[in-house]
Amino acid sequence: MSTSTLVPPGGFMLAVRGRTLADYVPVFLKWFAFVRHRSENTVRGYGEDLKAFLGFCEQAGLSKPDDVSFRHLEFYLGWLQEDRGIKPRSANRHLHALRTFWKWMVREEITTKNPAADVFMLPTSKTLPDYLTIPEQEQLLAALGVRSNLTGRRDYALVATALFTGLRCSELSHLQLTHVDLEAGILRVVEGKGRKDRELPIIERLERILRPYLSEARPRALTLPAGYILPPRPGRSEYFWTLMRTDPTGKRVRLASTETRDEAERLQAALPASRATATNPYVFVRADMKWLRKHGVQPLGPRTIFMSIRRLCLDVLGRKVHPHMLRHSFASRLRENGADLQDIQEALGHANITTTTMYAHLTTRRQREKLAEYLK
Prior knowledge:
By secondary structure, this protein is mostly helical. It has helices at 21-34, 40-60, 70-83, 88-107, 134-145, 150-165, 169-174, 204-221, 261-269, 289-295, 302-317, 324-336, 341-348, 353-356, 365-374, and strands spanning 180-181, 186-189, 198-201, 223-225, 228-230, 241-246, 252-258, 274-276. It contains 15 helices and eight strands.
């Protein structure tokens, strides 16, 4: 980072002192990322929540920090639930963003009061997490395991990794080859949520799925044809068949232009049969030549993984499945086989064991058998 990008003490506030809430929000987000070193996803989430609050303030005629009282914020939480259909848990997330925002403004001496601190968190129901039963997990894996095309083999490895390691969509996207040691049986999550690292075992069953994917299917997905032919385009003053190739960075390069397709095919046949792209460090990649030619080396994005898992589960199980349910399924399998909450917390990478207590109410097989004995 160059010295020109560094912000001196007070530099965040010099240009906006005494202005409106809408002026302070982008300054707060810049501080949140620069000083607190929060991740891009976290900063984006806070930005979306504060954007919703600014929309409410505009309708209510609230522009300055001191215009807002705790009653306004309580009404805002009710408005989120009634008008936008947001559940109490999500409304509490908005309140947490507002508390952090106001704490920053008090700290920067923009205001002397923090109305968000006087607002109570909304009560939330303690529901059991949704997860796939073990028969459903086996049905899903069996259906994906017979798919032989490159995308199918990648999806099989992707879903198996999610089910047997509990990785989040973002962690699956950022998983790199150097993080997977099949010989040692260790998978390392580097800078997961909260910038925390953790290690997970690669069980023998997952190793049998990942090894052929990494050694056969994945390299094939990253191998581009040495050249491809584009036909003449109507509207041009000259009509040529064009032989193209894509370099390792994804840039398209013209190799030759010919008057006939036969000539273009003759030149194409003289090229090497195939050519690997530049090194791609990611485990899960696109198996799409058009995308690879246009965008080059990139990981399979979190949203693509999210949508792929939803589609695959709907196709196989016939019902909508939130991708996070695969993470819950991993935790429920651990709990079913007797893992204690601390082990599950470490495996999932939860910062606080309170988050993990959602799995405390899942009864294990031994507990069910014991309860059944009492009921005889």
